[in-house]
Amino acid sequence: MSALASPKRVYVSPDDRIAAPNASNLDCKFLYCNLHRFLNQSAWQGFDPGTGSYVPALTPDAFAAQYLQGSIVFSEACYGLQTQGRNTSSSCALSLLAAGAAVVGSTGLAFGSSTPQPQTLIDADALARGFFNQSLQPKATLGSCLQAARLSLRQSAPTLDAYLRKTLLEFQLLGDPSYAI
Predict the structure, then answer these.
(1) Phi, psi at residue 150, to the nearest 5°?
(2) What are the distances in angstroms from CA 155 to CA 30, 87, 96, 126, 149?
(3) Please, which residues have CB within 8 angstroms of residue 117's CB and are 6 or more apart in sequence?
(4) Residue 17 and residue 129: Cα distance in Å, rounded?
(5) Is residue 3 a part of any domain in this protein?
(6) Given CA atoms 144, 12, 121, 167 in this order, what sign does their dihedral have?
């Protein structure tokens, strides 16, 4: 993370929320969103342990072209790339795409590292790490980064279980795969 963003650019939900009034906070090259999303909801959400509920962390109205044109977003939100029957006001992914950003995310359920072993990255977390590691390589493109991250994840996994298979199949790219990072 230190190679991609300074600590002052890290926002943690539920305390940090981004919507239209503070959208300028998203003015950066890379956005990594390790949040939640549920079917038929537009926002990507964080979990508030104090209230035991999910709260909006990012909403579709937060994504303005003046801040996001050319940005690359990796979202681990379940259904983060659910676009069928949606428009830019009801989909973070479509709103990001309309603002000129490229988005990598899951079309279905996303699985990541477990709480008992947070240092052991698996599934979506490992795919994100691989994607961002590849993005630091010379002449990297969006498509080559996602392809290399998938290959690395598959080769490093001891078995091809259902969670890994879902991760490899459901994480897709909305944007131009030839875009040079």
Answers:
(1) -65, -45
(2) 26, 37, 31, 12, 10
(3) none
(4) 23
(5) no
(6) negative
Decide if 96 is inside a domain: yes
| pLDDT for the residue 3 | 58
Domain, as residue range, for 23: 12-174
136-181 confidence digits (pLDDT tens): 999 999 999 999 999 999 998 877 888 899 999 999 999 999 999 9
Tally of domains within the chain? 1
Residue 25 lies in a domain: yes
53, 85 contact by CB (below 8 A): no
DSSP label at 60? G
Strand positions, DSSP E, the chain? 30-33, 44-48, 53-58, 72-75, 102-106, 171-174
Q: How many CB atoms lie within 10 A of CB 20?
A: 11
Distance CA 60, CA 44 (A): 9
Coil, strand, or helix at residue 28? coil
